[in-house]
Amino acid sequence: MADMNRFESIPFTEVRIDDAFWNDRLRINREVSIPYQYEQCLKTGRIDAFRLQWKPGLGEPPHIFWDSDVAKWIEAASYCHAVQPDPELEKLLDETAALVASAQQPDGYINTHFTQVEKENRWMNLRDNHELYCAGHLIEAGVVHFQATGKRTLLDAVCRYADYIDSVLGREAGKKRGYCGHEEIELALVRLYHVTGERRYLNLSRYFIDERGTEPFYFELEVKVRTWGSLSYYQAHLPVREQATAIGHAVRAVYLYCAMTDLAGELSDPTLLRACERIWDNLCGKRMYITGGIGNLKQNEGFTHDYDLPNETAYCETCASVALIMWNQRLLQLDCDGRYADVLERTLYNALPAGVSLDGKRFFYENPLSSRGVHHRQIWFGCACCPSNLSRLFASLGNYIFSRNSDELTVHLYVQSSTIRQKVAGASIRLALETHYPWEGRVQLMIEVDRETDFTLRLRIPGWCRSHQIRIREKLIKPPLEKGYALIRRKWQSGDIVEIDFEMPVERMKSNPAVSFNHGRVALQRGPIVYAVEDADLEASAWDIILPENSNLQARWDANLLGGVTVIEGSALVPVQPHVNDDLYQKETRPQFIVTPFRAIPYCVWDNRQAGAMSVWIKDQK
Amino acid sequence: MADMNRFESIPFTEVRIDDAFWNDRLRINREVSIPYQYEQCLKTGRIDAFRLQWKPGLGEPPHIFWDSDVAKWIEAASYCHAVQPDPELEKLLDETAALVASAQQPDGYINTHFTQVEKENRWMNLRDNHELYCAGHLIEAGVVHFQATGKRTLLDAVCRYADYIDSVLGREAGKKRGYCGHEEIELALVRLYHVTGERRYLNLSRYFIDERGTEPFYFELEVKVRTWGSLSYYQAHLPVREQATAIGHAVRAVYLYCAMTDLAGELSDPTLLRACERIWDNLCGKRMYITGGIGNLKQNEGFTHDYDLPNETAYCETCASVALIMWNQRLLQLDCDGRYADVLERTLYNALPAGVSLDGKRFFYENPLSSRGVHHRQIWFGCACCPSNLSRLFASLGNYIFSRNSDELTVHLYVQSSTIRQKVAGASIRLALETHYPWEGRVQLMIEVDRETDFTLRLRIPGWCRSHQIRIREKLIKPPLEKGYALIRRKWQSGDIVEIDFEMPVERMKSNPAVSFNHGRVALQRGPIVYAVEDADLEASAWDIILPENSNLQARWDANLLGGVTVIEGSALVPVQPHVNDDLYQKETRPQFIVTPFRAIPYCVWDNRQAGAMSVWIKDQK
Fold first, then answer.
1. Which residue of A57, A240, A423, A486 is most buried, as measured by CB atoms within 10 A?
2. At what angle do helices A153-168 and A185-196 cross, to 10 degrees?
3. B228 CB near a chain A CB, below 8 Å?
4. What CATH number labels A18-400?
């Protein structure tokens, strides 16, 4: 793995975001969504489940995945507190962390369902029961609560829990040789290793990864008769190093790939990284929507076959968007290749933020690319994995912008923000980025150094950008490019300003013809933003509108629309009579068209007005 | 139900087929497919399972649905023997029927799986275990074996079995109040009632229909915890009279609708018929492929939502085509409305015959409308429901052509054939139909009467036909039309010849725009035949080819191609370079096109040459 450019992310605690696209999103996440999610967890019994007072007859029993909802809330709220300390929030966090820890059994086990509802079934069905999945989220919660507050209540509890899990599962005699049907604990254990330095946790993660998909298959041994579910649904059909396609349940899959990437780095294991690269090529080259959403099929919440990307039934679970961002972030730290940042950015500005309403109180589980007007965000879900997952990503957004290593600084995302001082090449360096990105392509990067220093600044040139200019102190420069990054090596002085202009025209995008669903259709993209047409902006239906090749399209900033967005406007055609009658099939006729005003809005803000049809892929011909 | 035109089908035993389209299909079905299917049943243990010699350790245990494969083979072979007596086949049939009957338990039960493999689970899981489904097919086999041979061995056995089932299931005290998770027995019991006159069988069928979907739901009471499957998958979410959409598993659903239609007629129950009509409107108006295939989703082998008709992943199980033909035939006898015959014909000439190779030895389970060249017929299946289902439909094709009532004769399908003498309006009448349909639109119908007789001849004017002429003794007539049928009432004399000319141009068909998958695409149809492009006929790929609106297309009979078919030929366009590179999404460019020879073949004969791409819906624009 010597040929790679390895970096570490500058953590969100060292980055201050002040950005036109993100400020409202992050404020509403903190002020509305996170308190709202706590209320929902309280109201639905998820919090009180940890009091271990449930008895048959006493209302709804704790579900097998409830613990993870509370854990992700702790993680999200801890990030918020770390970014912007809030004594009230800290109090609630500490209480909740203590409540979770209080549910720990003498042997270290924590699980509200299997402690109260099905005591006899602990570890009996690793495939379906989500015990290790919940454990993973509890571990992440303990790690982040400690990082945000310095308090060890929950961290110590999850360490004891991880120790207990290590005593139950593994290759040694007397242990169950299993692994989880919903991957998550693998990446959580790496985080626990990072914060504790305890190598046993890394080894346990490695065991889960190495054991997965080996024969005899644990999931086949575990229960004799199954009524549903193939091994590939759980990515357990082949040893992970032999897997080559994104397969099965999307969130499970990408959480696994996250841990594989973590371990590839921690253990310098090129076989794991090669598997990740193969799978990435398949997933991002043949199975990803233009919005960066993944997982095309509702029925398995996951993948089917290459280029099977229907729009109206696109599943694109919000959690899968979170997972795809997490994975590409990990790949990017191991190998600073712009293709990973391009996918990360695509999902971050499109599929992911679509997952929450602008008011922060309604959420999408599924993020289709077209709708007849019947798909809307909901206030909560029985299986409520998505809201808190999205919130923890938003709350830790600062993690994704910059990286560093001993003598380089890297800019991955053009979010207006600044870092605290970083030690690089023996100097103390601070970056401050000013921009109206993604609405404008101009970026200014101010560099402060405590003394004149020779180091490399690595600036991502987004894959969507076909022309850019870079100036330092107003002088045009042509730095070399490496894997999608411009490398500017010079003696930096305080007051150096790098100005970058990314050309950002409205672009008509086509699919690879292998995607049959998008034939005769065009999508609009400008910068990283993918657009959609929505009935609320049109005199015709978004379902019928046609955007011919020669349409004149203009981008226009509208501060008053949907929290401030750049819209794309022009004119389009609609058939006078879309179909002769209601027949499902009928003889071709030559329709008449009329001209109609056209407006497209960013996909990420759709369904924030009255209900109506929506489409990302717009007809470009009759 | 007074406003309907009720008829009874002229049975296949009274019809002799001699038709250009069907002769080879029916001969190969009889000479190749049916013996081949017996061999497969023998080789895989399905036949010997009835010897009740299986013990743990003795090879593969009988599956829960194996009995139905043997039963459908008996049914198909019995039809063949009835049409064309064959002593050798009769011997094999009698042996097999005796073998099945020999497996009957003292209480009347017949089931190779639950007698040998899971004795303790008889009637324990009606939802998933297919016991009543297998019973239904055994009953049909008993009925048809008796009709074909006059022998009661199997008929008596299935009567005892039905009596036993009647003693176990029902509303009376001490009975299980259940019904089958895979409908089939309901329609079989109506057939058993017809052949035996025993009204208890009709009542049992009625019980199954009436009980279905009522609360408390039997399937929820039956087993406490289910890992998969919603009630609607089994059409058991609502009482059948309240159902309004085609829902769940397609074959289950349409077998149910068959029985509902049977009972609507037998019991003169308009509430059942209204439910069927509502469901039919939904299924055939919003959920059916242009090939007449149904069931769009692989994961539930069934339906999703209106207009969700993707092509490459179209499931269109061959069994569902059989079921759709059976259902429309039943509706057509209750209410002689051409819309039912139109759907029946669409499926019969397109989706159904595609299910078997021209050599009769390979079968499709799934019948997609496009393929990248990787979907091929198979020699057999673990779940082998389709081959024998298709064979029994082919072998009884004669049932679908003519109907009669006390003073009318009706022609539904233009298959070259003749009837034996029918008693109508007090006379003895014989019909003989001469045609090269579906390849040509000219039909001659010869009428023989034993004396000059006044009766109505009802001739279907196919829904696809926009212009037709009818002549009697060379004189043009304009008979009144009723629900898609021309009514010719006159004093018929022997030697009367009705000549019909259906105009049969090549037509470019479009989908309702609500079907997003077919945007920018056209399908070709001529008469009832739906066409497809296949790589074997093209210099370019069927996936890339474009058929502009102004293409000049000609139909040409080719006696030497694929057993003799009419092809559609002309020229088309292909892009010089379909995509700039392999990127999944990229900026629109203006492609260059070249002209290329075009040929389309009937969909029903695709995948009978070298592997390659195929598509029914052809791009009509870049």
1. A240
2. 120
3. yes
4. 1.50.10
Give the pLDDT score at A58: 86
Asked if A110 has any chain B CB less than 8 Å from its own CB, the reply is no
Give the pLDDT confidence of B363-414 residue by residue, as tens digits: 999 999 999 999 999 999 988 899 999 999 999 999 999 999 999 999 999 9
User: How far apart (Å, rounded) are the C-alpha atoms in residues B579 and A563?
Assistant: 37
Chain A touched by B230 (CB under 8 Å): no
Task: List the end-to-end C-alpha distance of chain B, in Å, as a whole number.
Answer: 51
Tell me the ipTM for this assembly: 0.90
User: Which of A510, A522, A530, A544 to mutate against chain B (most B CBs within 10 Å)?
Assistant: A510
Give the A:B interface size as CB pairs under 8 Å: 132
Sorting pLDDT into bands at 50, 70 and 90, what band is A57? confident
Active-site residue (options: B75, B131, B183, B301): B301
A403-502: CATH architecture = Sandwich (2.60)
Contact residues, A window 12-51, toward B, CB-based 8 Å cutoff: none
Contacts of A521 in chain B (CB under 8 A): 519-520
Task: Answer whether B516 sits within 8 Å of A288, measured CB to CB.
Answer: no
Residue A286 with chain B: CB contacts under 8 Å:
584
Q: How far is A509 from chain B (nearest CA, A)?
A: 4
Task: Report the DSSP beta bridge partners of residue B288.
Answer: B294
Per-residue model confidence as pLDDT tens digits over A294-312: 999 999 999 999 999 999 9
Q: Which long-range contacts (CB under 8 A, 24 or more apart) does B113-117 make?
A: B113/B49, B113/B61, B113/B62, B113/B63, B113/B64, B113/B66, B113/B67, B114/B64, B115/B52, B116/B49, B116/B52, B116/B54, B116/B55, B116/B61, B116/B62, B117/B54, B117/B61, B117/B62
CA atoms of A228 and A220, how far apart (whole Å):
12
Give the pTM.
0.93
Q: Give the length of chain B.
A: 622
Give the pLDDT mean for B227-239.
85
Distance, in Å, from the CA atom of B340 to the CA atom of B348, rounded to the nearest integer, reads: 12
Q: Do A588 and B509 touch (CB under 8 A)?
A: yes
User: Which residues on B lie below 8 Å from A226 (Cβ)?
Assistant: 227
Q: Which of A41, A336, A385, A465 is catalytic?
A: A385
Q: Quick check: B516 contacting A, CB < 8 Å?
A: yes
B543 touches chain A (CB under 8 A): yes
Would you call A301 a catalytic residue per the annotation? yes
Closest Cβ opposite residue B508 in set A312, A514, A587? A587
Compare all CA atoms of chain B with the CA of A544 and give the residue at the minimum distance.
B513
A223 vs B371: which has the higher pLDDT: B371
d(CA A312, CA A517): 10
B433-469 pLDDT, tens digit each: 999 999 999 999 999 999 999 999 999 999 999 999 9
- Distance between CA atoms of residues B166 and B185, nearest Å: 12
Q: Do A579 and B509 touch (CB under 8 A)?
A: no
User: What angle (nearest 5°) sits at the alpha carbon of residue B333, between those of residues B430 and B434?
Assistant: 35
| B482 in active site | no
Nearest C-alpha neighbor of A22 from the set A88, A83, A85: A83
Interface of B with A in 555-614 (CB under 8 A): 578-579, 582-590
Say how many residues make up chain A.
Answer: 622
Distances (CA, A) of A510 to A341, A348, B326, B540: 21, 21, 44, 21
In which region does residue A590 sit, left (phi positive, over 0), alpha (psi from -120 to 50) or beta (all else)?
Answer: beta
Q: Provide φ and ψ at B163, rounded to 5°.
A: -60, -45
* CATH number attached to the domain at B246-399: 1.50.10.10
